[in-house]
C-alpha cells in the first residue's frame, strides 16, 4: 500500500512532536514511541495499492498548489480494532480542493489498484495522529500549549510538502518536487 501525505511546516511539526512527547511522559500511548525513521506528523490524503509513474507526474502538478493553509483544531478519537487519538484538521477550501485532485488522479488510474475508501472525499476525516493503541483515551488539559493569540488546542500553519509512504518496504519518498 502506498500513501499520499502532506507534511507540515517546521514549527507545526515541532509542536506536534512536543504533544507526542507530553503524551509519552504522561504514560499514555504516543506516536513518540514509534521509532521508525519515516514516522513524522503528516496528513494522509489517499492510499492505493501502488503509485504508477504516470500518476506521480500528475501528482507533481496537483501538488504545485503547496503550500496551503493548515489548521489543527481540537482532538478527535477514532475507535476500532486500534483506537486513535488525533488532532483534527480543519478542511478549508484549499485543502479540500487539493484532496479532491489527489483522489481523482488515483481513482482515474486503474493501474494504481484499489484505493482505501476511508479517504474518499465524502468519507475523509482529516487528522494528524497523536497516539494509537488499544486503550487510547483523550488526555486532560496541559498537553497543548496555548498560542499567544488563540485557544490551546488550535494551531495554524501550512502544509508545505508531500511524500508517499510505501508500507511494503517501509520507506518514504518526496512527491511533487
UniProtKB/TrEMBL annotation:
GO terms for molecular function: ligase activity. InterPro entries: Cyclic_Pdiesterase. This is 2'-5' RNA ligase family protein. Keywords: Ligase.
Amino acid at each position: 500500500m502506498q500513501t499520499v501525505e502532506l507534511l507540515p511546516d517546521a514549527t507545526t511539526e515541532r509542536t506536534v512532536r512536543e504533544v507526542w512527547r507530553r503524551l509519552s511522559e504522561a504514560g499514555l500511548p504516543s506516536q513518540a514511541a514509534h521509532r521508525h525513521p519515516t514516522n513524522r506528523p503528516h496528513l494522509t490524503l489517499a492510499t492505493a495499492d501502488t503509485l504508477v509513474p504516470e500518476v506521480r507526474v500528475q501528482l507533481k502538478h496537483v501538488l504545485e498548489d503547496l503550500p496551503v493553509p493548515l489548521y489543527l483544531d481540537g482532538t478527535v478519537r477514532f475507535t476500532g480494532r486500534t483506537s486513535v487519538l488525533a488532532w483534527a484538521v480543519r478542511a478549508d477550501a484549499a485543502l479540500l480542493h487539493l484532496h479532491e485532485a489527489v483522489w481523482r488522479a488515483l481513482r482515474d488510474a486503474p493501474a494504481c489498484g484499489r484505493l482505501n475508501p476511508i479517504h474518499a472525499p465524502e468519507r475523509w476525516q482529516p487528522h494528524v495522529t497523536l497516539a494509537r493503541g488499544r486503550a487510547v483515551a483523550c488526555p486532560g488539559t496541559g498537553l497543548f500549549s496555548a498560542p499567544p493569540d488563540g485557544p490551546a488546542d488550535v494551531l495554524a500553519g501550512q502544509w508545505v510538502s508531500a511524500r508517499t509512504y510505501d508500507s511494503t518496504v517501509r520507506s518514504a519518498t518526496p512527491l511533487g518536487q
